[in-house]
């Protein structure tokens, strides 16, 4: 018989908040850790993404956190990516009651974050980089922190955050409770556990690596110049899809190429502002974009359900990166497809990686247009287009075309722009200038505007306004002798 949240010692107000969200029974990792977390013990947990870690550490955090003073939070949660930090913050707020939960990360302005910290934040969720910036500016002090959570510690290590995490933990209270969650507990994570936790309780849930055996693993061979076309053909057949590139510039370039090839694509990586990343993720989640073109920042830390296809556009650096990229599909018992685009000179490297992953026997070579034969059930494209059609009342588009919402908006904007231009040219009563004279003057101006201005001439006088007509000063200037 499975336990309930109340039997684990969770207060009634939190149980009621979880019940309103449809959460009534704890997951395995929550059963194992919540009670010990409420007792104030240090916890070291190994659990894969999607196992319910946020509630596992979040419930003890909310219960044990006391009201804080301005700029002196009582609890701290560290996360590797902006998206994960925001997701944790939103989930904690859903049951935190009167406790004030706030998130800080880079890519956005400092103003709102400084204002919130000055008013007082009880539970602070943060990315290490922005948190250290705010500490240096004197906007936050960690001396009063009694509870610290480090989520996805192995991802932190991969991203080079371990020195920053050590500096941050050294500033917190010596009597703090430290909870650490990670998909793996080796190397730098083991050192972090040894240095900053006191007799931690160890709990492990699920496989040591994400289960990628549920997905169908495929590959195709293509020259570098052909890869974008191959990726476009694959996404037109099966989507929503996430395409992984090695660099930020490569992601942006591929997204533009895919759009030219008729695929709705959004790029997401660490070089984008938070607003751009949030908008890209939202467009992908609601089906406005068929594919998300990402660097490895999206391999872990971005959680989107229903991803049908993962494309390794650039081969991953190692087998671990392949696992975490591929883990974006075939989640929660669903099936999915993983496609690797291999260049002819990369065959040997790819073969070694397949053998190390244990998929060399099951991976199959396919042409992109035949991926639909591997896709189970009704295509995601059909389901999403039906949802759009129900909302809009319009007929579905052909496969691989952009959604009708964006294009119709563009047409309407163009029509309104044309109407606006027409209204500017319309005469205003009897005092309006003679039409023929205006026509002549416009020709005169346009002829001179096309010529290169002399070195001593003011360029601004000959530049037309945005409505297509030159301003009055420009007209008068061209009516004067040219040798002035």
Could you characterize what this model shows?
By secondary structure, the protein is of the alpha/beta class. It folds into two domains: about 5-205, P-loop containing nucleotide triphosphate hydrolases (Rossmann fold, 3-Layer(aba) Sandwich); about 215-390, Rossmann fold. The chain is built from 19 helices and 14 strands. Strands 3-4-2-5-6-1-7 form a seven-stranded parallel sheet, sandwiched between helices. Strands 10-11-9-12-13-8-14 form a seven-stranded parallel sheet, sandwiched between helices. Helix 2 (about 30-40) runs parallel beside helix 3 (about 55-65). The longest helix has 22 residues, at about 405-425. The termini are far apart.
Q: What integer is the average pLDDT?
A: 79
CATH topology call of the largest domain: Rossmann fold
Strand line-up in the sheet with most strands: 3-4-2-5-6-1-7
> What is the assigned CATH homologous superfamily of the largest domain?
P-loop containing nucleotide triphosphate hydrolases
Number of helices: 19
- How far apart lie the N and C ends? 97 Å
Summarize the biggest pleated sheet. 7 strands, parallel
Quaternary status of these chains? single chain
Strand composition percent: 5-15%
C-alpha Rg (nearest Å)? 29 Å
CATH architectural category of the largest domain: 3-Layer(aba) Sandwich
- Overall, the morphology is globular
SS elements, strand count: 14
Unreliable runs = 377-484
Structural class: alpha/beta
The level of helicity is 40-55%
Q: How many separate domains? A: 2
CATH class category name of the largest domain: Alpha Beta
């Amino acid at each position: 018989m499975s336990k309930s949240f109340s039997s684990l010692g969770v207060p009634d107000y939190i149980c009621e908040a979880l019940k309103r969200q449809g959460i009534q029974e704890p997951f395995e990792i929550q059963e194992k850790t919540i009670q010990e977390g409420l007792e104030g013990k240090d916890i070291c947990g190994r659990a894969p993404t999607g196992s319910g870690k946020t509630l596992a550490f979040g419930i003890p955090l909310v219960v044990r956190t006391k009201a804080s003073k301005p700029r002196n939070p009582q609890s701290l949660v560290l996360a590797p990516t902006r998206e994960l930090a925001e997701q944790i913050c939103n989930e904690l707020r859903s049951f935190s009651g009167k406790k004030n939960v706030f998130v800080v990360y880079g890519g956005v302005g400092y103003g709102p974050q400084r204002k919130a910290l000055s008013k007082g934040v009880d539970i602070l969720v943060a990315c290490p980089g922005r948190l250290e910036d705010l500490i240096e500016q004197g906007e936050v002090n960690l001396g009063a922190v009694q509870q610290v959570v480090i989520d996805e510690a192995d991802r932190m290590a991969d991203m080079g955050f371990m020195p920053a995490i050590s500096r941050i933990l050294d500033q917190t209270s010596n009597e703090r409770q430290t909870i650490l969650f990670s998909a793996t507990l080796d190397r730098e994570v083991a050192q972090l556990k040894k240095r900053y936790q006191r007799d931690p309780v160890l709990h492990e849930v699920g496989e040591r690596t994400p289960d990628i055996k549920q997905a169908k693993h495929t590959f195709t061979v293509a020259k570098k110049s052909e890869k974008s076309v191959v990726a476009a053909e694959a996404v037109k057949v099966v989507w929503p899809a996430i395409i992984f590139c090695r660099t930020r510039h490569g992601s942006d370039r591929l997204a533009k190429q895919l759009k030219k090839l008729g695929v709705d694509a959004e790029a997401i990586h660490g070089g984008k502002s938070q607003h751009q990343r949030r908008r890209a993720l939202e467009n992908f989640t609601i089906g406005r974009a068929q594919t998300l073109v990402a660097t490895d920042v999206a391999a872990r830390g971005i959680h989107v359900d229903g991803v049908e296809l993962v494309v390794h556009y650039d081969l991953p650096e190692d087998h671990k990166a392949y696992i975490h990229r591929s883990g974006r599909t075939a989640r929660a018992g669903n099936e999915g497809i993983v496609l690797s685009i291999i260049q002819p000179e990369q065959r040997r490297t790819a073969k070694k990686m397949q053998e190390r992953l244990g998929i060399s026997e099951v991976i199959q070579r396919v042409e992109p247009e035949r991926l639909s034969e591997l896709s189970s059930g009704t295509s995601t494209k059909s389901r999403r287009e039906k949802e759009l059609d129900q909302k809009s009342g319009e007929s579905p588009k052909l496969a691989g075309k952009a959604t009708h919402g964006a294009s119709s908006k563009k047409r309407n904007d163009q029509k309104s722009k044309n109407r606006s231009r027409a209204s500017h040219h319309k005469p205003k009563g009897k005092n309006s200038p003679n039409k023929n004279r205006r026509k002549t003057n416009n020709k005169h101006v346009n002829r001179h505007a096309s010529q290169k201005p002399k070195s001593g001439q003011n360029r601004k006088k000959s530049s037309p306004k945005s409505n297509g007509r030159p301003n009055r000063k420009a007209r008068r200037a061209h009516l004067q002798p040219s040798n002035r």
